[in-house]
Every structure is written in structure tokens, then in C-alpha cells.
Design goal:
53% helix
């Protein structure tokens, strides 16, 4: 069963505002999440050469000493 009085132009005009509003809210939400991720990455700890590396259990290869 279909609606008895359908006027597509009137329906388009009446729904344009709410649809645009919902799209703007969705875009704002995505932008907020992206901003939050970039802020977290900027404030995070970055690895530096001063940090202690975990022991692997193997000794590094050493160069042969002359005279042995």
C-alpha cells in the first residue's frame, strides 16, 4: 500500500534541513575523533636513543683483537 498524497518536491524541501543537520553532526563527530587521535599521537612518548633496550640474551659480535 502506498501513501495517498505524495508530493516529492514538498517532501524534498521539508527534509532538506534535517538531512543537512544530520550530515553536519556526523562530519563533526568524525573530525572530533580524528583531532583526538592526532592530539594523542602528539602527546605520546616517542622513542629516543636514551631509552634502555631490553636484553636479548646474546652478546654482540666483537672484532678480533690483533696480537692474539
Amino acid at each position: 500500500m502506498s501513501a495517498p498524497h505524495t508530493n516529492l518536491e514538498t517532501q524534498k524541501r521539508r527534509h532538506r534541513g534535517p538531512l543537512i543537520g544530520m550530515a553536519l553532526v556526523a562530519i563533526f563527530g568524525v573530525a572530533l575523533i580524528v583531532y583526538w587521535q592526532f592530539e594523542e599521537a602528539a602527546e605520546g612518548n616517542s622513542p629516543t636513543s636514551d631509552t634502555v633496550q631490553p636484553e636479548t640474551g646474546t652478546e654482540p659480535a666483537s672484532a678480533p683483537v690483533a696480537g692474539d
